[in-house]
Amino acid sequence: MTSSSSRSPSDFAKPLRDNGRFANPPSFDKWTGVPGFWNLLKWRLFEKDNSNIPDDNAELDEVLPVHNVTKFESKSKAGMFAAWLGHATVLVQMEDIRGEHDSFKVDDKNVTVWCLPSQHWGQRGAFDRNKRLWSGWAVVTPNRRFYYTGDTGYCDREFKKIGSRLGPFDLAAIPIGAYSPRWFMKSQHIDPHEAVAIHDLVRSKFSVGIHWGTYHMGSYEVIDMSILQYYLEPKELLNDIMQNRTDLPPFVTLEMGQIWEESQDSNEDTTLS
């Protein structure tokens, strides 16, 4: 372990801990703290729900279809594959390693799992705020690299370090939803613009948008007033941004259960099935 006195600028920020509770380090300079009770009340009482989620399940099935993910089992173990299972869960296979974003079974000594900084907070019960550490993850093998940001706000300094030290990544899973209203969400959840910035900073060759389109998370997406179905705004806004960023590798959304496959053809980036 590197001591703080010899720490270099490329070292990742370490969380603060006081009386058994974690806190974001000073390098997360856009962190404004956990939203307080009055902010929560203001959000719930005075912000209009613009999500426009249809009551008709058939309509939802049409615009947000679900694929049978069991066909993942037929994939060769030689390549790299991923399937979005909804919300923030991604099923990933890299060579002989398979697991969900936060649960990998690894027996190979050539695999390194990194616990990485993310800007957020944690709470599961009434009295355990920040007693468990939030984080991102990277899984690195000799031939493949996967990065999962975790729930996070934006901090260009730390994401640039991740890209410089561990990138480029073959695949990254980056949140794109639950970002509005910004006065309430910005410190803890990135929006699609910030997600694209992270995609660039970590040097991802292909990124998948997560943390959206699964259930109503209380976030009232409404940045682009031209998008009438606001529950689809994370996806549509990401598409619009990427259409104007032809300098970047692909950053897409998958349908639930849809499989991304790293292409073996040098003239083709990826395939979807």
From TrEMBL:
SUPFAM superfamilies: Metallo-hydrolase/oxidoreductase. It comes from Necator americanus. Pfam families: Lactamase_B_2. InterPro entries: Metallo-B-lactamas, RibonucZ/Hydroxyglut_hydro. GO terms for biological process: N-acylethanolamine metabolic process; N-acylphosphatidylethanolamine metabolic process. The lineage of its organism: Eukaryota, Metazoa, Ecdysozoa, Nematoda, Chromadorea. This is Metallo-beta-lactamase domain-containing protein. One of its GO terms (molecular function) is N-acylphosphatidylethanolamine-specific phospholipase D activity. GO terms for cellular component: cytoplasm.
